[in-house]
Amino acid sequence: MQKKSIRNKLSIAGILVTLGIVYGDIGTSPLYVMNAIVADAGGLQHATPDYVIGSISLIFWTLMLVTTVKYVLIALRADNNGEGGIFALYALVHKNARWLMIPALIGGAALLADGTLTPAVTVTSAVEGLKGQAFGKLVFSQDQNVVVLTTIIILLLLFMIQRFGTSTIGKAFGPIMFLWFALIGVIGFVNMVPNLEVLKALSPVYAIKTLFSPANKVGVFILGSVFLATTGAEALYSDMGHVGKKNIYASWPFVYGMLTLSYFGQGAWLIRNYHSQAATGFANPFFEVIPANMKLFVIIVATLAAIIASQALITGSFTLVAEAIRLKILPRMLIKYPSTERGQIYIGNVNWLLCLVTLAVTLYFRTSEHMEAAYGLAITVTMLMTTLLLHSYLAHKINRLAALLISLFFGAVEVVFFTASIVKFAHGGYVTVIITCLILAVMAIWYYGNKIRDRHESEREYVSLLAYRNQLVELSADETVPLYATNLVYMAKMKPGHMIKRSMLYSILDKRPKRARVYWFVTVVITDDPYTLKYKVDMMDTKSVVNVTLYLGFRRNQWINVYIRQIIQDLMREGKVDYQPQRYTTIPNRHVGDFRFVVLQELLSPATNISNLEKLVIGARIWLQNHTASPVQWFGLEFSDVSIEAVPLILGERHHIKLKQVK
Question: Which reactions fall under this protein's catalytic activity (predicted)?
């Protein structure tokens, strides 16, 4: 009996896994947020009590409005069969209006791009806290090169363990994150008690005053730093499929409370020390508030928490890409399921590409200060796009006027944050903008390439297998044609009415007649149950043409050659297919013949009659299709006899050209 899914029930174990998977990004924001805010003031000596209280008020209410209200209370309700994230939200609303694909593409690309900076900034910030710390007789180097090297090693190890799945990682990381939140909450509370005036920050009045205060030298652009406190909110929504909304609802109040205490405690320390001599030798306020006898321990836990922050973005990226593949926004990639939870996945291509870009970002920026200057710009775009999609969702769920008011409110807040973050473009934000544009280009090519193809592909490209059944039976029995294979297999997405691509029958009958004793047309259906292993057979009133539908659980390997061999043995015992005794074999009493799989690879035909722009998009789409997961990998045919056949893709109206004979 399978264990009940953690995402379908509320439990202590589920909450711990949630702490380990979901809150890494937003949970490590105290490492760098106050540091960025003090830098905006021009240093500790300029961070006056009013400025500090107002800044903390901005952080508190940003977490309240954006993270708590928008994402936890509203967005988590918009789940697609338990999955969250911008693509899952798009799947719920795409029928409402075609233009909604645009914000989905932009938001998804921006979120994936910003995810390359999150692991770099969080781990670097934590490792920098180790500078000068003593481990017995050993002292961690002050050299930034050592910090960068340590960060790279940690990130490499993190990406290497992804293949083991988020359930295993979450169980290991959950207790660490609980300890992390408890530590920052207690330390924050102890630092807050001597300066309880910091509690004024609970009033939004101080937040608004600070935006226009002379002490705030950067004006509204302070929101660019404040926004760093809530960048993990979108990842929280994306990770819903891994742990379930119930566990997020139960754990968020604890997380929010500990974050608040940490920010208030750092603020109280700043109020006490802004006028002291220590102001000139000031370091990150997060590390300054830690008692000396606990500093090394807390920094080690902070480093572990930073690793977990990276984990949250990586798992969120896997979920986003998987959703995009299902929605035909990205090319097909090999998806593995390390556990029985369908939401817990591993995509090797995404993992290592994300690893490569993250390491490049680390080497390019080198310090957390430079990374903070660039961080958060892309995610403001994602949040704006999510608000647009949420409006469409809410408009069909509640009163349209209420949906409009909610969307306008959050849209206005996020436009202000976006405006404040624009300044980051020149300070390194252009890196994430470039990455966003590259990802967006791939998504747009794949999505609109499919649309162009569907629009121009005529109905004659599909034919009924029934119409050619007799020809296939005759060809199978025609011994004047050399035997191509005993069993010839095509992976065919059979449509209702036995409709398949004409190119498959063209491959069998026209290019060079391929005689086989049995022709197999196989359709694979992936089920929500992890271990389904069933099949359905339509013999089409023959013994030589078989239409097979395989129902495989999402954790099942798609070893099509193994499954087909079992199916043919079942059919032989039932007398539906003739035995295929082999004269030359190493297997005694072998009754199953050889198999050959034919994979059709489409190439754009010169006869295609569409616009030059459409040709460019279709050509790029075909290139992506031929350079991502091939059908050979996808269906587990690496060790099978496979023939790859090029077939022309002809789109648009066909012109008949007639030559004239010259006498």
Answer: K(+)(in) + H(+)(in) = K(+)(out) + H(+)(out)
Write the Ramachandran bin of 526: left for phi over 0, alpha for psi from -120 to 50, otherwise beta. Answer: beta
Write out the residue limits of the CATH 1.20.1740.10 domain(s) in the chain: 12-450
| Contact criterion met (CB below 8 Å) for 86 and 234 | yes
Residue 577's nearest CA partner among 533, 534, 547 is: 547
Alpha helix positions (H), 478-543: 502-506
- CB 599 within 8 Å of CB 644: yes
Neighbouring residues of 575: CB distance < 8 A, sequence distance ≥ 6: none
State how far the Cα of 287 lies from the Cα of 631, in Å rounded to an integer: 52
Residues 306/125, Cβ–Cβ less than 8 Å: yes
- In order of 24, 30, 351, 363, 606, the CA distances from 308 in angstroms are 5, 14, 15, 20, 51
> What's the one-letter identity of residue 507?
S
Two tokens, residue 646: 């090029």
pLDDT digits (tens, 9 = 90+) for 77-88: 887 777 778 888
Amino acid at 119: P
Asked if 376 and 227 count as a contact pair (C-beta separation under 8 A), the reply is yes
Confidence of residue 171 (pLDDT cuts 50, 70, 90): low
Cβ atoms 23, 177 nearer than 8 A = yes
CA distances from 584 to 67, 476, 481, 580, 581 (A): 68, 21, 22, 12, 9
The residue type at 169? I
DSSP letters of 54-65? HHHHHHHHHIII
Instruction: Answer yes or no: are the C-beta atoms of 147 and 371 closer than 8 Å.
Output: no
Query: DSSP label at 494?
Result: P
User: Distance between CA atoms of 113 and 434, rounded to whole angstroms?
Assistant: 9
Q: What is the pLDDT of residues 545-556, one digit of tens each?
A: 999 998 887 667
Gyration radius from the chain CA atoms: 30
Q: Who's near 289: CB < 8 A, 6+ residues apart?
A: 187, 188, 191, 265, 266, 269
The count of residues in the chain is 663
Q: Which residues have CB under 8 Å from 242's CB, separation 6+?
A: 7, 17, 21, 22, 166, 170, 315, 319, 341, 343, 344
pLDDT digits (tens, 9 = 90+) for 342-389: 556 778 888 888 889 889 888 988 887 777 767 777 888 889 999 999
CB neighbours of 27 closer than 8 A, spacing ≥ 6? 177, 180, 181, 232, 255, 259, 305, 308, 309
| CATH code of the domain made up of 12-450 | 1.20.1740.10
Which tokens is 445 given? Answer: 């090519």
* 304 half-sphere exposure, CB direction, 13 A CA radius: 20
Question: What pLDDT does residue 405 have?
Answer: 92
Side chain identity, residue 145: N
Helix (H, G, I), strand (E, B) or coil at 469: helix
Distances (CA, A) of 576 to 544, 545, 548: 9, 11, 13
Which residues are registered as beta bridge partners of 599? 644
